[in-house]
Please model this.
Amino acid sequence: MLVDTHAHLYWESYYEDLDAVIQRSIDSGVTTIINVGVDVKLSKKAAEQTKEKLRKVNGLSSYSTIGIHPHESVKYPDDVSIHKDIEELEKVYQSLPDQIVAVGECGLDYFFSHIDPEYLPYFAPFLKEPLKDRESWHEKLTPDVIEKLKDSQRRLFQAQIDLAKRLDLPLIVHCRDDRSQNPENSEAWDEILNMVGNHPTILHCYSGLPKTTQKVLASPTLLFSFGGTITYSKNEYLREAVKLIPLDRIVLETDCPFLPPQSIRGQRNEPSAVLEIAKLITDLKGVSLDEVARQTTQNAKQILRIK
Model:
């Protein structure tokens, strides 16, 4: 039995064949799926889909989460707007307290050079003049603007940390540094670790450098979550991290429909791909697939407090 600790099965790309996706998941031994929210609307959608669809599938255990992705921070110009949506997330939790098992996906993403066009209209408060098109964005990424964007993410993330503490739920954290100019940059990871402290946390799609890995290892309440990115040829440093990290600190994920493993790169990802991740970890650590499945499942169940 395997657990996908991070899926987004409410995404539009699953509308036509979700039943087949779920069956492939079960057939591959992935029998527990965590349906992760990324904003208020999609946290509600994840909760509804999990309750009305996923929890009615024989052979599948499913849960959901509530959270606001750091990319969404540009939609929150002040603390009042943050507080309003944190209250909305809490209402979702209170409606399904036995199903909702974590706060997230939340965190910090400091890779600002890639901006989805849908977010462009929200950048006006951060800029001295209107943003006319995507191409002009890079010209306006001054140090002052970048710091404003980072501060917005910090405030949104801190509000969700506070929510997790209030609800006694673990965090599922997204973290991404901009290493385009400095391959050793760990600013976002350093801030994440400082902000979460010893609160139980799953470090989604772990991408920390060796120095960050050592810091995380020193905090036993934090778990490393690995998905398709460990199969990419450029990420040898992550495969080395897998070898180093004790199996009792690892959980598995897909982040589907995103980040498919190398074998299906460029295609839609789905929960069944957890099996491929588990097999790679088996090879990297020199243990059996049964041991990887048993221990990572135990880890996920313990931090998320699921059956």
